[in-house]
Amino acid sequence: MTLQNNPSVDNLRIVELPIPEPRRQEILIRVRATALNYRDIEIINGTYHTAFNLPLVPLSDGVGEVVAMGEDVTRFKIGDRVCSTFWQRWIGGSFRMAEPTYQRGGPIDGLLAEYAVLDEQAAVLAPRNLTDVEAAALPCAAVTAWHALVTEGKIKAGETVLVQGTGGVSLFALQFALASGAKVIVTSSSDEKLERAKALGAFAGINYRQDPEWAEAVLELTEGRGVDHVIEVGGPQSFAQSLKACTRRGQINVIGYLGGKEGTINPLDIFARQVDVRGIPVGSRESFETMNRAIEAHDLKPVIDRIFPWDDAAEAIRYLERGSHFGKIALLHSEASR
Ligand SMILES: NC(=O)c1ccc[n+]([C@@H]2O[C@H](COP(=O)([O-])OP(=O)(O)OC[C@H]3O[C@@H](n4cnc5c(N)ncnc54)[C@H](OP(=O)(O)O)[C@@H]3O)[C@@H](O)[C@H]2O)c1
Question: What does pTM read for this prediction?
Answer without folding.
Answer: 0.98
